[in-house]
Specification:
single chain; Poly(a)-polymerase, middle domain; globular; about 375 residues; 5-stranded mixed beta sheet
Length: about 375
């Protein structure tokens, strides 16, 4: 077990070079009117994106948790998932970890709560974690702060869809150098405008990432990104998928090249233009299909976790379990506020071509709209 864990740690750390930031990306500037904005976006990306040191520290935390958990549980797997591994992480990002273990009961949620409660008590006993909280959500999460380096960790049990979508987003990040700075800039823009928290009826970072990938698939011409579900149907088929390493490289990724030559600034502005004019009443955003899906069709998909009542105002298809990743936006006032910020951001960027004009943007809030 020890040899295996140290081997995995070495392999994960060796991937840090793949996630390293290029200080001089190709064609960042082209002498056009958008150069200042493109440079500003890339400067923010290089200053805020997860560093190699931060990534390697998170891998060390994973290793230590793995070794402590083995003292109280047998036969399990522990995956780092989310932005730490996709290349879309910030230095300030939490560490998302998925524990895979054979269920003891037929009630998956109750079983997860039992396992996480057991692990929480064990880690507290050895002073490995501080400020712990077991969140009794639909997908239970053990939140805690790791004791040595201070990172916040979200640990779930058997939510394997997170492993699949981490690998998918890692592959998209590898397709084109512009994807990572654009995703991180959109996430920071959402944070600055306070519309990046599912607990407050707004949009999670994961959903913003899917929106950006979708836009790069079908909101620009030529496309920046392909639809990997179409390019590799067997690899991303939810019925056949078997991922042992979220950093598994698909050899054909090196053969994917976009004919799109737009700058970071043009693509960033275009993101807001695309969603300012998106028909949210009729369509759902789908990375899996590389296009739009009728919301009514999404409601009818037969999947264990899908529920037609979760498809409300902002609809984003989860690529593997077919649920709505933006189901937290179930309040019409919150949705209108998000849409107003998107539209105003587009107008300001077109008018000023300045990044600071949208960090945050100023919108006129309807006086009857509750504050979030």
């Amino acid at each position: 077990m020890l040899r295996r864990v140290h081997g995995l740690t070495h392999r994960f750390k060796s991937k840090s070079k793949v996630l390293k930031i290029d200080p001089n990306p190709p064609n960042l500037l082209n002498g056009g009117v958008y150069d200042q904005l493109s440079q500003a976006i890339y400067d923010v990306f290089t200053s805020k994106a997860q560093t190699t040191d931060s990534y390697e520290n998170k891998i060390e935390i994973w290793k230590n948790l793995f070794l402590y958990i083995r003292r109280c549980i047998n036969h399990y797997a522990l995956y780092i998932v989310g932005s730490t591994m996709t290349g879309f992480g910030l230095n300030s990002s939490d560490i998302d970890i998925c524990l895979l273990i054979r269920p003891c009961t037929e009630d998956a949620r109750l079983d997860s709560l039992h396992q996480l409660h057991h692990i929480k008590n064990h880690l507290l006993k050895y002073n490995v974690i501080i400020e712990s909280e077991l969140i009794l959500a639909k997908v239970p999460i053990l939140k805690f702060r790791e004791g040595t380096k201070g990172f916040e960790v979200d640990l779930n049990c058997n939510n394997s869809v997170g492993i699949y979508n981490t690998h998918l987003l890692y592959c998209y990040a590898r397709c084109d150098w512009r994807v990572r700075p654009l995703v991180i800039m959109v996430k920071l823009w959402a944070q600055a405008n306070r519309i990046n928290d599912a607990k407050n009826l707004t949009v999670s970072s994961y959903s913003w990432t899917l929106m950006l990938v979708h836009y790069l698939q079908c909101g620009v011409s030529p496309a920046v990104l392909p639809c990997l579900h179409s390019v590799y149907p067997s690899h991303f088929d939810v019925e056949k998928i078997k991922i042992r390493d979220v950093h598994e490289d698909l050899h054909l990724l090196d053969e994917i090249h976009s004919f799109n030559t737009q700058s970071l600034a043009e693509l960033f502005i275009g993101f807001f233009g695309y969603y300012s004019n998106f028909d949210f009443n009729q369509y759902a955003i789908s990375v899996r299909s590389g296009g739009r899906l009728l919301i009514e069709n999404c409601k009818q998909v037969k999947a264990p976790k899908n529920d037609q009542h979760q498809w409300k105002y902002l609809c984003i298809e989860e690529p593997f379990d077919f649920t709505n990743t933006a189901r937290s936006v179930y309040d019409i006032f919150a949705f209108r506020h998000i849409k107003a910020i998107i539209t105003k951001s587009y107008e300001e960027l077109v008018r000023t071509k300045l990044l600071n004009s949208v960090l945050p943007v100023t919108v006129n809030i309807d006086p009857i709209m509750p504050a979030y």
